[in-house]
C-alpha cells in the first residue's frame, strides 16, 4: 500500500525527468540537442546546460545511494568510499592509455575491469578489516583510501598529478556532442541503481543487512554469519560506486587524483545524512538539494549593507550553516524525519486504540 | 533413553583476576528441563555465554549432541539446533515485531543469500514467524516497531525470536526478568507447553522459586562461580547448604539486575 503510493510518486518524477530536457527547451526556447555548427553539435543553450547539472546530480546520487547501502542499511561506516569511485576512473584511464584497443573497446574493457577490481578491492578491505568493529574499521578504510590517493598522485604510471585525459569518445556517447543521449543513459543507470538497491534491501539478504545495523550481536546469535553479509554489502556498494566513477570519467573526460580525494567520501556521507540515512530517496534528495544549491548559488554575489560578498569565497561557511540548519530541523534527514513523524502518528493512533480496548494482545493459547 | 544432549566439562572462565565460572560440570538430558539457579553474580549468564560460544572458556569443554563445540562460532550453533534467549532484552529495535521473528525463521536457510526477491514472498518464514508470535500472544502487535513494545512484550518477543528457529535445545536466561508478576505464570506455562509438544530440551535460569520447583526435572545451584549442588527439585529444596546460601538469605532480596 505504502509502496504503491510511493511508486506512483516515483513514476511521476521519472516522467518529469524524461521530459525535462524538452520542458527546459520549450521554456527557454533552446534546443535539447544543442546548436549545430557544420557537422557537429555545439553544447550551447539552457536545455543542455541544465542536462549537465542533472547528469551530475544522477552520478553523485548513485555514489550516495551506494554509500547509503553500507552506511544506512547495513550500519557499516566507511570513510574510504572515494577509493572505489576513483579507482574505477583510473582503471578506465589505464585501459585507454596502455591497451592497443580503440576507445570504445578500451572503455568497455576498462568498465568491466573496474567493476571486478572494485568488487575485489571491497572484498579484500572488508576481509582484512571488518573484524574490526566500529571506529577502528572506519579509520582503517580512511587510511587505505588516503594511501591510494597519495600513491596515485605521485606514481608515474598514473601520470601523477595530471592524470589521464579521455580523448575521442564515440560521438554517440560523448557528452560534449550528444549530451541528450548521455543524459538518458545516466538517467537509466540512476533509475536502475535505485530499483536495484530497493529490491536488494527488501530481499532476504537486505533483511539481514538491516538486522546487522540494528543489532549485530543478536544477528550472530540467531545464526547469521554477519561477516559474510557485511562483505556482500561492501562489494555491492563498491561496484555501484565504480559505476558512478565510470560515468564521472565519461562526463568530465579526465581522470585525476581528485577523484580519489576524501571529498568523494564526505559528499555522499553528508548528502545521505541530510536526505535521510537508511531511506531510499534520502541520498538522492540530499544530493540534489546540495548540488543544485552549489551550482546556482556558488557564483552569486550578495549585497549586504554597503558591502558585496562573493558567495564563492564563503561557500564552505554557507554549506556548514545549511548543514547545521538541516540537522536541527530534520534530525533524521529530510526523508527520515518525515517517515518518523508519520510513524509516530501511527503509534499515537495505535495507543489511543489500545487505551480504548484494555487488552491489546489477545492471548491465543 | 537418557541421552545427554548438552554437556559441560570442567568449564572455567576468568575475567582478569575474577573467576566468574569455576570448574562447572553439567549434564543435560534430552527432553528435560534443567534449571540453573543461584544468587546474582553466581555466574549463570557467564555459563550461558560459554555454552553458546559468546565467550571462549579459559579451560574446559562443551559437548553438544556428542560433538565438541567449545570453540564453534556463535553463529554456527543455531544451525546445530541450539538457541538462546537473553536476560537483557536483545532485539532489533527499529524493525517490526514480525520482522524480528521472521529473521530468526529465515536464519537457518540459504535463502538469506537470495537478493533479488522480496523477503515477504518467502511465505514459509512469515508463517513460522506468525506462529511463534501467536504462541507467545504477540500476533496483534506484528506490525509494530519492536522498540515501542512495553517491557513484558519485549520479553515475549525475545522468546518468540528463539521459538521461530525451532531449536532442539533452548537456553533461557531469565525469560521473565522484569516482567509484571501476574504475567509470569502464563509465560512459563507457554514454555512448558512448547517443551512437551515439541519434545525440546530447556536449560533455564530463573529467579522465581515456585516456577523453578514446578517446572524443572533437575536443578543445578551455582554460587560464586561453582556448582553448589545438583539434583531433583525435592533434593534441592531439602539441601541444607543450598537453603543457607540461597533460599534463606538471598531469595527475597530485590533483584538488582535489569
Ligand atoms: N564480560 C565480563 N567482564 C568482566 N566481568 C564479568 C563479565 N561478565 C560477567 N562478569 C562478572 O562475572 C560474575 C558473574 O556474572 P554473571 O554470569 O552475570 O552472573 P549471574 O548471571 O549469575 O547473575 C559477576 O561478578 C560479573 O560481574
Ligand atoms: Mg545473569
Would you summarize the structure shown here?
The complex is a heterodimer of chains A (365) and B (258). With 365 residues, chain A is mostly helical. Helices cover 70% and strands 5% of the residues of chain A.
List the SSEs and their pairings:
The complex is a heterodimer of chains A (365) and B (258).
Chain A (H helix, E strand, L loop, with lengths): L1 H27 L6 E3 L2 E3 L3 H26 L9 H18 L4 H27 L5 H20 L9 E2 L13 H23 L2 H18 L4 H27 L1 E2 L7 H13 L6 H16 L3 E4 L2 E4 L4 H15 L3 H24 L9
Antiparallel strand pairs in A: 1-2, 3-4, 5-6
Helix pairs in contact in A: 1-2, 1-6, 2-6, 2-8, 2-9, 2-10, 3-4, 3-8, 4-8, 7-8, 9-10, 9-12
Chain B lengths: L3 E12 L2 E12 L3 E5 L6 H8 L7 E6 L2 E2 L8 H4 L1 E4 L11 H10 L16 H14 L14 H14 L4 E5 L10 H15 L2 E5 L3 H7 L2 E6 L2 E6 L1 H5 L2 H9 L10
Parallel strand pairs in B: 3-8, 3-9, 6-7, 7-8
Antiparallel strand pairs in B: 1-2, 1-4, 4-5, 9-10
Bound molecules: adenosine-5'-diphosphate (ADP) and magnesium ion.
The site of adenosine-5'-diphosphate has 11 residues of chain B, from β2 and α1.
If you had to describe this structure to a student in words, what would you say it looks like?
The complex is a heterodimer of chains A (365) and B (258). Chain A is mainly α. Chain A contains twelve helices and six strands. In chain A, strands 1-2 form a two-stranded antiparallel ribbon. The C terminus of chain A is likely disordered. Chain B has two domains: 173 residues, P-loop containing nucleotide triphosphate hydrolases (Rossmann fold), CATH 3.40.50.300; 77 residues, no CATH class. Chain B is globular, with a radius of gyration of 18 Å. In chain B, strands 6-7-8-3-9-10 form a six-stranded mixed sheet, sandwiched between helices. In chain B, strands 2-1-4-5 form a four-stranded antiparallel sheet, with helices on one face. At the A-B interface, helix 7, helix 8 and helix 12 of A face helix 2 and helix 3 of B. Magnesium ion binds next to helix 1 of chain B.
Amino acid at each position: 500500500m505504502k509502496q504503491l503510493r510511493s511508486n506512483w510518486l516515483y513514476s511521476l518524477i521519472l516522467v518529469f525527468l524524461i521530459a525535462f530536457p524538452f520542458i527546459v527547451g520549450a521554456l527557454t526556447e533552446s534546443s535539447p540537442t544543442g546548436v549545430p555548427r557544420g557537422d557537429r553539435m555545439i553544447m550551447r543553450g539552457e536545455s543542455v546546460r541544465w542536462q549537465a547539472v542533472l547528469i551530475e546530480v544522477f552520478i553523485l546520487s548513485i555514489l550516495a545511494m551506494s554509500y547509503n547501502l553500507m552506511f544506512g542499511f547495513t550500519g557499516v561506516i566507511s570513510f574510504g568510499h572515494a577509493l572505489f569511485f576513483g579507482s574505477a576512473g583510473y582503471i578506465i584511464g589505464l585501459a585507454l592509455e596502455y591497451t592497443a584497443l580503440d576507445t570504445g573497446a578500451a572503455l568497455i574493457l576498462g568498465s568491466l575491469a573496474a567493476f571486478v577490481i572494485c568488487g575485489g578491492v571491497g572484498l579484500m578491505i572488508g576481509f582484512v578489516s571488518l573484524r574490526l568493529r566500529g571506529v577502528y574499521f572506519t579509520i582503517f578504510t580512511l587510511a587505505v583510501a588516503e594511501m591510494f590517493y597519495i600513491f596515485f598522485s605521485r606514481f608515474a604510471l598514473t601520470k601523477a598529478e595530471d592524470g589521464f585525459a579521455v580523448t575521442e569518445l564515440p560521438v554517440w556517447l560523448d557528452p560534449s556532442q550528444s549530451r541528450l543521449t548521455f543524459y538518458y543513459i545516466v538517467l537509466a543507470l540512476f533509475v536502475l541503481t535505485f530499483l536495484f538497491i530497493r529490491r536488494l534491501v527488501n530481499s532476504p539478504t537486505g533483511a539481514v543487512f538491516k538486522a546487522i545495523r540494528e543489532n549485530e550481536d543478536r544477528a550472530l546469535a540467531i545464526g547469521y554469519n554477519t561477516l559474510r553479509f557485511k562483505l556482500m554489502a561492501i562489494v555491492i556498494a563498491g561496484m555501484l560506486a565504480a559505476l558512478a566513477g565510470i560515468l564521472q570519467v565519461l562526463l568530465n573526460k579526465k581522470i585525476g587524483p581528485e577523484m580519489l580525494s576524501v571529498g568523494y567520501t564526505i559528499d555522499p556521507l553528508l548528502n545521505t545524512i541530510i536526505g535521510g540515512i537508511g531511506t531510499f530517496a534520502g541520498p538522492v534528495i540530499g544530493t540534489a538539494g546540495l548540488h543544485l544549491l552549489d551550482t546556482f548559488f556558488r557564483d552569486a554575489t550578495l549585497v549586504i549593507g554597503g558591502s558585496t560578498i562573493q558567495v564563492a569565497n564563503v561557500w564552505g561557511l554557507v554549506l556548514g550553516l545549511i548543514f547545521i540548519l538541516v540537522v536541527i530541523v530534520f534530525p533524521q534527514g529530510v526523508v527520515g524525519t518525515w517517515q518518523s513523524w508519520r510513524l509516530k502518528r501511527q503509534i499515537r493512533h495505535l495507543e489511543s486504540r489500545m487505551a480504548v480496548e484494555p487488552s491489546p494482545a489477545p492471548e491465543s493459547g | 533413553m537418557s541421552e545427554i544432549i548438552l554437556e559441560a566439562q570442567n568449564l572455567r572462565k576468568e575475567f582478569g583476576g575474577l573467576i566468574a565460572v569455576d570448574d562447572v560440570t553439567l549434564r543435560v538430558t534430552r527432553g528435560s528441563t534443567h534449571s540453573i539457579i543461584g544468587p546474582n553474580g553466581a555466574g549463570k549468564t557467564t555459563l550461558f555465554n560459554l555454552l553458546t560460544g559468546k565467550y571462549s572458556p579459559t579451560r574446559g569443554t562443551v559437548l553438544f549432541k556428542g560433538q565438541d563445540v567449545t570453540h564453534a562460532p556463535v553463529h554456527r550453533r543455531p544451525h546445530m539446533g541450539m538457541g538462546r534467549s537473553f536476560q537483557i532484552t536483545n532485539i532489533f529495535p527499529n524493525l517490526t515485531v514480525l520482522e524480528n521473528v521472521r529473521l530468526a525463521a529465515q536464519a537457518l536457510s540459504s535463502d538469506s543469500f537470495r537478493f533479488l526477491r522480496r523477503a515477504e514472498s518467502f511465505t514459509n518464514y512469515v508463517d513460522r514467524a506468525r506462529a511463534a508470535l501467536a504462541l507467545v500472544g504477540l500476533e496483534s502487535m506484528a506490525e509494530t516497531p519492536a522498540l515501542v513494545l512495553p517491557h513484558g512484550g519485549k520479553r515475549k518477543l525475545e522468546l518468540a525470536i528463539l521459538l521461530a528457529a525451532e531449536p532442539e535445545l533452548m537456553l533461557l536466561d531469565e525469560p521473565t526478568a522484569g516482567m509484571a508478576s501476574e504475567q509470569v505464570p502464563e509465560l512459563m506455562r507457554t514454555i512448558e507447553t512448547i517443551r512437551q509438544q515439541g519434545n525440546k530440551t530447556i536449560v533455564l535460569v530463573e529467579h522465581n522459586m515456585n516456577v523453578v520447583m514446578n517446572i524443572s526435572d533437575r536443578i543445578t545451584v551455582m554460587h560464586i562461580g561453582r556448582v553448589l549442588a545438583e539434583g531433583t527439585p525435592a533434593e534441592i529444596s531439602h539441601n541444607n547448604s543450598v537453603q543457607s546460601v540461597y533460599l534463606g538469605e538471598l531469595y527475597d532480596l530485590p533483584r538488582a539486575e535489569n
